[in-house]
Design goal:
Length: 415
């Protein structure tokens, strides 16, 4: 009996020791893996958005300005006159820096795709010429080639005005170098080229080196009941249900205006491949504004992106832009199968008008609500890039315009 008990105690001790050894091994492995992950991804940890780092970034910008390396129409206010004042860091994302500031009492946003000016491709021709020695025709050609590379567009000389330096002066080389850093940022090119042609993109206020400033607008958010913070834009008068419905109706109509504008009013259709509330904002007049166009592409660039090798349709999905796989040649179609309207109906309008999301949907007069629900559901269905699909899109656009206009009229009569 004692021998059996002794054997049990021995087994228990061995089991405990094995368990302890396994726990120690697990802890050691966890520490090794954590250390490896930290060293492999330390750049991710360093991208944490902090006031301290933002101040260092702007201090480096001003140091380069005082050294004559870069310039811009906002540099003096930022670095000397202190009329452009840092407020706080908004976010860092894959190298992109977004900072809120106050410029002469006006809130603005400072943006740059990279942190340091020297990180951008250097224009070697500046080292080979004397001050102001680059002919204007050569400068235009350089800008046109860069825009072609970035956007896939061939621009006329007249349309490149917003991208060029305004005047030559004693710091002309710094002006050209600063212009070149901005031209390497797709979003800056979009906003610069479109701000005189579209009310649906952010207005550029100025720049300093590789940082450019745009108007401050509050972005939408998926967790918000109405997707956009309407109270902060138009004031507490929106507390009433009818006022909220009226505002949502106006915003929905502005989305439709933006869709038509981006589809038809430029030399090429502009495709939005990342449609979510966070990438849009609304002005005080409830105009919808695209505030993040890193994933927007004109038709020529869109075709290059979509036309890839494939074994099925899932290989032809580029975020919110889809095409179809031709299984015979194992190649994705160059034409987008869905469109901006379909994705907006699916990701934005469903939140307002879908009967399945009662907590976040906006109630309307019953008949109009049912008609809008049906129209949005039909609009959100994935389509094909053919004549029938195009006609269906036009029909959805027309029907949604009509129903939203009728809703506006009903709300006005009820006042």
């Amino acid at each position: 009996m004692r021998g059996i008990l002794g054997l049990k105690r021995l087994r228990l001790k061995i089991w405990r020791r094995c368990t302890l050894v396994l726990l120690l091994l697990w802890a050691a492995c966890w520490m090794v893996v954590s250390a490896l992950l930290f060293f492999l991804h330390r750049s991710v940890f360093s991208e944490r958005c902090t006031d301290e780092k933002s101040h260092r970034i702007l201090a480096r910008l001003c140091l380069d300005y005082s050294s004559g390396v870069l310039t811009g129409d906002l540099c003096e206010d930022l670095c000397v006159a202190q009329k452009l004042v840092y407020k706080h860091c908004l976010y860092y994302d894959r190298g992109k820096k977004v900072i809120q500031a106050d410029w002469r009492g006006q809130p603005i946003i400072l943006k740059s795709k990279k942190e340091i000016f020297s990180s951008y491709q250097h224009l070697s021709i500046l080292e080979e010429v004397e001050t102001e020695d680059i002919p204007e025709t050569e400068l235009l050609l350089m800008v046109a080639v860069e825009v072609k590379n970035v956007l896939g567009l061939e621009l006329s000389n007249n349309s490149m005005g917003p991208l060029l330096i305004r005047k030559k002066g004693p710091h002309w080389k710094a002006q050209v170098a600063s212009m070149w850093s901005l031209l390497q940022q797709e979003e800056y090119i979009y906003f610069s080229l479109l701000q005189d042609f579209s009310k649906h993109v952010l207005r550029i206020i100025g720049s300093c080196g590789h940082f450019y400033a745009v108007e401050y607008l509050t972005a939408g958010h998926a967790w918000h009941k109405t997707l956009f913070p309407l109270e902060s834009v138009v004031g507490p008068s929106l507390a009433g249900h009818k006022s909220m419905v009226r505002a949502v109706t106006d915003i929905a109509l502005s989305f439709l205006d933006m869709v038509q504008h981006f589809d038809n009013d430029f030399s090429h259709r502009l495709h939005l491949c990342d449609i979510k509330p966070e990438n849009f904002a609304i002005r005080n007049d409830l105009t919808v504004v695209a505030i993040d166009v890193d994933m927007a592409f004109f038709e020529p660039k869109m075709r290059d992106i979509l036309e890839q090798n494939c074994t099925g349709d899932e290989d032809c999905n580029f975020f919110d832009c889809f095409s179809k796989c031709n299984l015979k040649i194992k190649k994705c179609g160059a034409q987008r199968a869905n469109n901006n309207l379909q994705v907006i109906c699916d990701k934005i309008f469903r939140r307002w008008f879908s009967p399945t999301l009662r907590e976040t949907s906006i109630s309307l007069p019953l008949q109009l609500q049912l008609q809008l629900q049906k129209a949005v559901q039909e609009c959100a269905k994935p389509g094909h890039r053919d004549d029938a699909g195009h006609q269906r899109t036009l029909k959805s656009l027309s029907e949604l315009y009509h129903l939203l206009r009728v809703t506006q009229q009903e709300l006005q009569r009820a006042e």
